[in-house]
Every structure is written in C-alpha cells, then in structure tokens.
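S.,

As promised, the magnesium ion run. Input:
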Amino acid sequence: MTDVIRVDPARPDSDGIARAAACLRRGGLVAFPTETVYGLGVHALDRQAVLRLFEAKGRPANDPLIVHVSTLAEVAPLVIERPPHVALLAARFWPGPLTLILRRASAVPSEVSAGLDTLAVRVPAHPVARALLQAAAIPVAAPSANLFSRPSPTRAEHVLDDLNGRIDMLVDGGPTDVGVESTVLDLTVEPPLVLRPGAISVEALRTVVPSIATLGARIGAEGSAPMASPGLLSKHYAPRAPVTIYRGDATRVRDELRRAAWNAIAAGKRVGVLATGEDAVSLRDVPVVLADLGFEGNDEAIAARLYAALRELERARVDIILAHDIMREDGLWRAIGDRLRRAAASVIVVADR
Ligand code: TXA
Ligand code: MG
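Predicted complex:
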C-alpha cells in the first residue's frame, strides 16, 4: 500500500514533509506535487533506488530523468561545466518550470540520464516540492508520477490510479497549477535548443537568451485532403481510448467532429470529445461525453485541465476520443498542442474546400 500524506499546498506541515524526506533519503519512491504535474521522486545518487523507479513506472531505461534541487548552488556538484546562460536563466526562471540540460558529473549515476553524458536539472517552485527538497537535502530525480506513456498526473488521485501499491508514499498537495510539464532547454548545444515545449514559453526564454532555437518540425500529418496517419506520432501521454485530432479551419473541424461523432455512435461506440467551450456548443445535440476544456482563448485554463480531462473521458469508459487540434505557438499553446498531438493515435487534416 502507498502511504498518502495530505498537506496544505501553500504551507505544508513539517511533520508530513519530514516523513516524506526521510523516505526519499532511505531510497524510497515518493510522489509529490510540483507546479507543473506530480513527480515521482527518488534519491538521484542512489543507483538501486533509481532502478526501482524505472521499474515502478514501467519506464524504458533509455528515457532520462530530471533531477530536482532546491537552489542553483546545488546544481554545481551534479554537472561538470556551467555555460554562461545558466546564471541568467536561473535568475529569471528558477524556482520554476524550466529544465536545463547540462553536462553530467560522474557523481550522478548514468542510469539517471539513461547513459547520456548530459543531465537535466530544475528547481521547482511549488511550496511542497521546495519544502521536501530542503528537508531531504539530496538531489531528487523525478519523472512525472504516471505509468509510462499515460497522461501526466495533475491531481493526487491520478497518481493513485496509476501507481497505488507500486510506490512508498504520495504527498497530496491538491491539484497542480500549470498542468503541462516544464520546458526542457538544452544548453550543451549552441544555440540552446528547446527539446520539449512546456510551461515557460519560448518567447519568455528568448527575452533572456534571444538565440534560443526550437525543433520546428511538427509531429503528425500535413496535407490537404482528409487523411489519417496512425502510427506517425510519437506515442506518449496517451489515455486508454484512442484519440483522433482534427486540424484545419475551425468551422470545418467542428462539422467534421459532429460527423465523426455521429458515425461512431451509429457504429455503437461511446464517444468522448475533448472540447473547448466553442466546440462544445456545436456538439450540443450530439450524445457524446464532453470534457470541457474551457474557453478557447484561455491557454492557462486549458493547460491546467488537459490531462485531467483526458483521464475523465477514460473513466467515463468512452471507446474513442475526438479533439480539435490546437496550432497556436504563443504562450502555453505550443506546449498544449504538443501534448495533444502526442496523446493522439491519429491526426485528420480537414481539407479546405
Ligand atoms: O514538469 C516537469 O518537468 C515534470 C515535473 C515532475 O518536474 N517532470 C517531467 O519528467 O515531466 P519526465 O520524466 O516525465 O520528462 C522528462 C523529460 C523527457 O522528455 C526527457 O526525455 C527529458 O526530460 N530529458 C531528461 N534528461 C534529459 C537529457 N539528459 N537530455 C535530453 N532530454 C532529457
Ligand atoms: Mg512524463
């Protein structure tokens, strides 16, 4: 059984935090909230504990972990050089949802980085994560606290759904704030490269380091005719029901969502739709299970709801999930679109007529 400790997210009580910290120091697996998603923490310098963490998540050994520390100073012993951008970026974005890739020092077991000579580090901002890291006084490797390839957990119950009985402790600090993971920025290359869009926008990063580059390539199909491309997407963050996303002109996409929903219903399927308020209105008379993401203009609200909405649809036992692709690049939209496309089994490009 997993021991669940409830704490006040703003002022976590020190007894609960001390127990969780002691568990981490002993090599235990402890899930805790960060400002982005729940992490599953383990002593980053304890190789056996790190191996147990991969096992508990069912995570392949070639997927590297992020090491969480409570201050920039604690990064120094974990890495072998600190490029000049680190101090500037840390001063502006830490504590916060920015992960930096640096060169790994040999003190950190290579399993943490899946054998790479680099290391991902971040200083999280959530008061519970901060209190836990301070009390534990060790670097904590923490991937998202979900089973491999499942949506990241934004609530304590999501962690239990995936990992109850597989981990030692869960510190329940309520829902997380941001809802999508940290931005991963590689500082071992020049210009620095965003490997994973996330909670901190590329524009915000460029106010500090203007040369930052992105992996421009989009995941998924491009084309003009309606076209499905199963298997093309790197599968990740996926709920159990297959997700199909529709891309193109908003009005046409809504028509297509209605048509696809009616077809699936006629075939006896239970249909879930991941919908913005605007999509939901157009599906009013269609008997689908709606997971409302909120209004189209509000990226923060949509990011905070996205993973919970996918899990809600799953719990409603839908057979398929339909969604409207989000192609904006500013603010949190880049991260939202990235996660939506990674959750998808196929992309349908709705043709302009
Ligand atoms: O917001 C977050 O980052 C959350 C919370 C818990 O901090 N953590 C998280 O961890 O999302 P995880 O393991 O689910 O994702 C880690 C990402 C992966 O995309 C991984 O490939 C990348 O970071 N990563 C880790 N180490 C890396 C390295 N040395 N080089 C390149 N990418 C790395
Ligand atoms: Mg993850």
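Residues 217-233 have pLDDT under 50 and may be disordered. Residues 243-350 form a domain with the Rossmann fold fold (CATH 3.40.50.11030).

- D.
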